[in-house]
Design brief:
Number of domains: 1
CATH topology: Rossmann fold
Strand content: 15-25%
Oligomer: single chain
Order of helices and strands: HHHEHEHEEHEHHHEHE
CATH superfamily: Vaccinia Virus protein VP39
Radius of gyration: 18 Å
Shape: globular
Helix content: 25-40%
Number of helices: 10
CATH class: Alpha Beta
Largest sheet: 7 strands, mixed
CATH architecture: 3-Layer(aba) Sandwich
Structural class: alpha/beta
């Protein structure tokens, strides 16, 4: 495992319980999936794309992509999460067209074919060197290939702490999560991420904020999750809401 990159083996159950079994996890997944399908209508129309899920976790997006008929390669440094995802693929008869690799995205075998699409969601903010990780993903893309990157947005933490009156925390500029917690160790400035991608020669073709207002809500019990998801989708590509999302999904294309 490179450096001190986060491994969720010891936190896999907590991760599943606190993220995927909660409304915030469902909102994140549904808005992200909506945006992926909007940007890539060919996902449904043209099966057989070579897709890498870099840091697949519990495979929620990878499963949907495999069900559309794509050739999936999944990697994760968490052996427990990868085993869980592989079992789900087996139960859904999706394993024959999929490859599972217990590895960080930086240590994938050199002999892998280049990918038409790489999805890397909620991963780079847990890495020691996120910029280098993006460079690794760039090299794994085929010419003209696309990267779907979702990262934890530092701007949202600034706003959340301002709303709570934590002015001294904002002034300190220190937003790293605590060891053993589920707040990422390196929340990322969106403009910095965009500059890293552009420095690689990538063309940014779409952006969306994920959970642009849900995390700021003081009352949630009187609104259905379906209505929240609908409004999140409506605001996801609009500024200033986009740049205040808890996550930002950016899609870019490699030259070629």
């Amino acid at each position: 495992m490179p450096g001190n990159d986060k491994n969720f083996d010891e936190l896999s159950e907590q991760f599943a319980r606190n993220i995927y079994q909660q409304p915030k996890g469902k909102i994140r997944l549904e808005v992200l999936w909506w945006h992926l399908q909007k940007v890539f209508p060919e996902l449904s129309a043209f099966p057989g794309m070579r897709i890498l899920d870099a840091g697949c976790g519990m495979g929620h997006i990878a499963i949907r992509l495999a069900e559309l008929g794509h050739e999936m390669t999944l990697c994760d440094i968490s052996k427990l999460m990868l085993q869980h995802t592989e079992q789900v693929f087996q139960e859904r008869n999706l394993k024959n067209s999929s490859t599972f690799i217990h590895s960080s995205l930086q240590a994938l075998p050199d002999n892998l074919k280049r990918f038409d699409l790489i999805v890397c969601h909620a991963v780079v903010e847990w890495l020691d060197d996120p910029q280098q990780a993006l460079s690794e993903l760039f090299e794994r893309l085929a010419p003209g290939g696309r990267l779907s990157l979702m990262f934890y947005n530092r701007n949202s933490l600034v706003m959340r702490n301002l709303i709570r009156g934590n002015l001294y925390k904002v002034a300190s500029g220190e937003f790293s999560g605590e060891a053993g917690g589920l707040t990422p160790t390196q929340p990322l400035d969106s403009q910095l991420v965009y500059s890293w991608l552009e420095d690689l020669g990538m063309t940014i073709i779409a952006r969306a904020g994920i959970r642009t207002f849900y995390d700021y809500m003081t009352r949630r019990d009187h609104i259905s999750i379906e209505d929240i998801i609908e409004m999140e989708i409506n605001l996801s590509e609009q500024e200033p809401h986009l740049s205040l999302g808890r996550y930002i999904h950016v899609v870019c294309r490699k030259p070629g």
